[in-house]
Amino acid sequence: MKPHVAVITLGVRDLKRARRFYSEGLGWPIQQEDYNWVCFLLEGGATALALYPWDELAEDASVSSDGAGFRGVTLAHNVRSQERVDEVLIEAERAGGNIVKPAQSTSWGGYRGYFVEPEGHLWEVATGATQLPFSE
């Protein structure tokens, strides 16, 4: 298996709210959508982020849909400056997200903060991790 992720699918309880957060709030262009899913092509075109109804996604994978609390997954958005970290966190908050950890310096010389989008998915916004790809 090659080390590549083609699609990250987030299970959401309110598809309209999640669509609004990413498309209108964060300004992400929609690549495709249907009555029960929305897909955004991420920068570079090699990976997509899809939104799909929570219960339907669980059913599709044949797993229970009653997950709650921390899900053991974070999504990361890496930028080139501390100022941009702060700006992205503000954008997310204005779009309806909740900052759960304000940006601060890290022990490894970086700078990062976390927000939760309206459906409960945890995002890290960071700079200083030069060995990782930048999101912008």
Task: Give a quick summary of the entry.
The protein is α/β, with parallel strands linked by helices and 136 residues long. It has helices spanning 15-25, 54-61, 82-94; strands spanning 7-12, 32-34, 37-41, 48-53, 74-78, 98-105, 111-116, 122-127.
What does this entry look like structurally?
It is built from three helices and eight strands, in the order E-H-E-E-E-H-E-H-E-E-E. With 136 residues, the chain is an alpha/beta fold. It has two domains: 55 residues, 2,3-Dihydroxybiphenyl 1,2-Dioxygenase, domain 1 (Roll), CATH 3.10.180; 54 residues, 2,3-Dihydroxybiphenyl 1,2-Dioxygenase, domain 1. Strands 1-4-3-2 form a four-stranded mixed β-sheet. Strands 5-8-7-6 form a four-stranded mixed β-sheet, covered by helices on one side. A hairpin with a 2-residue loop joins strand 2 and strand 3.
